Amino acid sequence: MKKWLGFLLIGLMASCPGQQNIEEMLDLYNKESVPYIQVSELAKEGELTLLDTRESEEFKVSHLENAKWVGYDQFDIDLFLSRYPDKNKPLVVYCSIGVRSEDIGEQLLEAGYTNVQNLYGGIFEWKNKGYPVVDTQEEITEKVHAYSKYWGKLLTNAEKVYAP
Question: 0.85 cut: is pTM over it?
Answer without folding.
Answer: yes
